Amino acid sequence: MSTAEFSMIEMIKEKRLGHAHSPERMAAFVQKLVAGELPDYQVAAWLMATVFQGMTLDETTELTRLVAHSGEVLDLSTIPGPCVDKHSTGGVGDKVTLVFAPLLAVCGATVAKLSGRGLGHTGGTIDKLEAIPGFNTSLTDEQFLQQLRDHRVAVAGQTKDLAPADGILYALRDVTNTVESIPLIAVSVLSKKIAAGADAILLDVKAGSGAFMPTVESAKELSRVMLEVGDRLGKKVICVVTGMDQPLGHEVGHANEVAEAIATLKGEGPADLTDLCIHLGGLLLAASGVTRTAAEGEVRLKAAIADGSALQKFREMIVAQGGDPAVVDDPTLMPQPKFRIPVPARASGYVQRLDALTVGGAGKLLGAGRMTKGEAIDLAVGIHLSKKEGDRVEAGEPLGFLLANDEAKAAAAAEVLQQAYTIGAAQPTLEPLVKAVLGPESLVGAR
Ligand code: URA
Question: Which end of the chain has the least Cβ crowding within 10 Å, N or C?
Fold first, then answer.
């Protein structure tokens, strides 16, 4: 099918009726999408039809390939390697990449990472990095490659050079409630990973209320699709299913999440975030052959935090991407909120549940998420969670603080944050964060 013969109306109808698209129709779609020839309302209608009707594995694989090739697909063969990449399917308070990228880069891997902006109720690494004054997330392919040669780490967003079709679909999915679809997530995640060119890819597949996959079983299903598509497209992929019932760490937002990542690189971060970074990092160091086992990788990663080299690498990455490295010593140089408003507990007891989706919703009410495409978000606002699951709290004590710039929005968010907490007499038993590791034995075996 040529682009002249292509009809978006027919494509929407085909998917609405539950039929599979031909590779030729999908190729024409991606070409027209990137050329800016498709109106948002038609693309949004197709996205919604896809959420309801799904895609076959063949369609998912072909669309992933097309979206990856909608810009440059980087050839990292001349970059000192092994080149690795990591991606999360999205969560609340998930700032793992900010810690993980510099950490892996000082431990013998080269980290070539394309990230996204906020999606639905979840935050995005690219928005978070933009809280650092001057930080450029929009690198050309040449800039991306040069930075890898010079610094062994680069974190950038989709651009007109790199996975542009994902950039367009992603921005629309964010504001049309069309994120929760296994094939659309697989296409979005893997197309970026293929465009960025890494040899070994670790996917952190989140499961729980704050994730797009609500259960471990559905997260495993998404993992199986991504493993199969990755394999068909010649990529080494590992999927780690991790819990996202409560937010990761204590900070949800943008500037405050970067500050928490910096604290983690200094060895002063919360245990859940630190442990997850070390665990995922160990697996990827072993899968990419940097270390013999994940346990050996973990020792190396912990040493890089303890001796300050990971923090130094983060500073170096900020400078390379035009940002102000002084934020590492003084995080208040990032956008700060006018108000820090405590949200007091209404009862004494233990936090039995802290619902990540509801916390994400409170963050959006404060202005930390987009309601319409391209909307500016407020990088200063967010939530500090003083109490997390398992913690004891007395009535009147703060459950957390709203970091706000608008008192009316804060009043609405305070009510929502109250609803995120369930407080009861019994101390809950906390579940381990890592639920499953899936992938070929050759990659996940060295544990
Ligand atoms: N991360 C992505 O890049 N895309 C998704 O669809 C979900 C998470």
Answer: C
